[in-house]
Design brief:
The protein is of the alpha/beta class. The chain has two domains: 178 residues, 3-Layer(aba) Sandwich (Glutaconate Coenzyme A-transferase); 243 residues, Glutaconate Coenzyme A-transferase (3-Layer(aba) Sandwich). It has 15 helices and 24 strands. Strands 13-12-11-10-14-19-23-24 form an eight-stranded mixed beta sheet, with helices on both faces. The protein has a seven-stranded parallel beta sheet with strand order 4-3-2-1-5-7-9. A three-stranded mixed beta sheet has the order 16-15-22, with helices on one face. Helix 8 packs parallel to helix 9. It starts with 11 loop residues before the first helix and ends with a helix.
Length: 439
């Protein structure tokens, strides 16, 4: 099967000729990135016009089509979710943000938006010509099934797992062109040591997690710290159903806590859409592929599937919450810090799960540049900032001062619950606002 597709193997420069002026080109999402095709397309600066590239949550420190064309003479870059590197590009006016729920992306690509060329990172093929989607399943199959031209970029460093029943598998015959070559090591994501406040927030959450719980952990310090606490606890038979699998789950597995045996869906497997973490994590995925079911957004981010899991626990971070329970999870005023990603998908799944809970975690306060303390629990989300999740979707809010449980509460009761977990310096003012506005 491999030899029958050898005519599709071309140089990146040849494959990049498939891109035409005015095209939409997809680079994918997360730590999987088409390095060689990015460089080859950037080399066509000045030859092409109005080429629009979509990506998101890029942690590699350079996107060539952006860096080589800061005047945006040929290329414009759009992001579904601002990552650390894209945040720097944003400050230079070099990234345009596309708001979306991740679970909506497959429907967008099928029915609403155009994709002309897809640059798909894949693992080395096996003897039958099958490749894995490495560390980013994303919604790649939907994208390339709707694209005019599909380019597979073989990255020798990507884990070779192909999923359960082909859930993470593509075949060389599905590409119009295939490129290969020597790549840099995969980008890694590390975490800072938790602060005392992070530890207390994580303890507050961990105390709510029962044996047999299925975890959906967001990417961040507090979810990672929760996993470390659970790894050292007496919890047993935890499961994984998550947007992004990380070193947190590897730590749980090595502590004997992650067995996935109680899951009503995908029993025995850790279910995920993206992978992001250390090289050790990527090696684990490659060496023990039988432990995992990587799958696409339609599958992993489905609240209906999550609702069939008992004790499904979703843990994510927030930027601000107001007294009604509305969350800003992604912006500082009009400045986009990240994106909503799959947070609403997993909050809904946890709410619908028997015994499930959705947690939004944040420090009660922060220090501004002048050294003045500011509350992260506010009377209302300020103008210009994003309401990422409506008050009707927020279940449990956690700070270092405790857990506020909001379902079934009136506006006044919500305000009192939120004020109780605010920093003590701000509680009186928050309660005064609540009395004046929520009767």
């Amino acid at each position: 099967m491999l030899t029958g597709n050898m005519h599709k193997f071309v140089t990146p420069e040849e494959a990049a000729k498939a891109v035409r002026s005015g095209d939409w080109v997809d680079y994918g999402f997360g730590a999987g990135f088409p390095d060689m095709m990015d460089k080859a397309l950037a080399a066509r600066k000045g030859e092409l016009t109005d080429v629009k590239i979509r990506g998101g949550l890029v942690i590699r420190p350079r996107i060539e089509v952006v860096e080589q064309d800061p005047e945006q003479e040929s290329f414009s870059y759009y992001s579904w979710h601002i990552g650390d590197y894209e945040r720097k590009l944003q400050s230079r006016g070099l990234v345009k943000f596309l708001p979306t729920l991740l679970r909506s992306l497959p429907a967008l690509y099928r029915s609403y938006i155009r994709v002309d060329v897809a640059f798909v990172p894949v693992s080395c093929p096996d003897g039958e010509g099958y490749c894995g989607l490495g560390i980013s399943n994303y919604t790649w199959r939907t994208i390339f099934e709707n694209a005019r031209t599909v380019v597979f970029e073989i990255n020798e460093h990507l884990p070779r797992l192909q999923g359960v029943d082909g859930s993470h598998r593509v075949h060389l015959s599905e590409a119009d062109f295939v490129v290969e070559g020597v790549h840099e090591p995969l980008p890694v994501r590390t975490y800072k040591d938790p602060t005392p406040i992070d530890l207390q927030i994580a303890r507050n959450v961990a105390s709510e997690i029962p044996n047999g719980a299925v975890l959906g952990l967001g990417v961040g310090g507090v979810p990672f710290t929760v996993a470390k606490i659970l790894a050292e606890s007496d919890r047993t038979d935890l499961g994984c159903w998550t947007g992004t699998i990380s070193d947190a789950f590897m730590a749980l597995y090595r502590a004997g806590k992650l067995t996935n045996v109680r899951k009503e869906v995908d029993a025995g497997y850790a279910t995920w859409n993206l992978a992001m973490g250390s090289q050790e994590l990527y090696d684990w995925l490659d060496a023990e592929s039988h432990l995992f079911r990587p799958a696409d957004l339609d599958y992993v981010h489905s609240p209906e599937r999550m609702s069939r899991l008992s004790n499904f626990i979703s843990i994510n971070g927030g930027v601000q919450l107001d007294l009604m329970g509305q969350e800003n999870g992604e912006s500082a005023g009009t400045r986009q810090l990240s994106g909503i990603g799959g947070q609403m998908d997993f909050l809904e799944g946890a709410f619908r799960s028997r015994g499930g809970k959705g947690f939004i975690c944040l420090n009660s306060s922060r220090m501004d540049k002048e050294g003045k303390r500011k509350s992260n629990i506010v009377p209302y989300i300020p103008g210009g900032s994003t309401v990422s999740v409506p008050r009707t979707m927020i279940e449990c809010v956690v700070t270092e001062y405790g857990v506020a449980r909001l379902p079934g509460l009136s506006l006044g009761e919500r305000a009192r619950a939120m004020a109780a977990i605010a920093h003590p310096d701000f509680r009186e003012d928050l309660l005064r606002y609540a009395r004046d506005n929520f009767y």
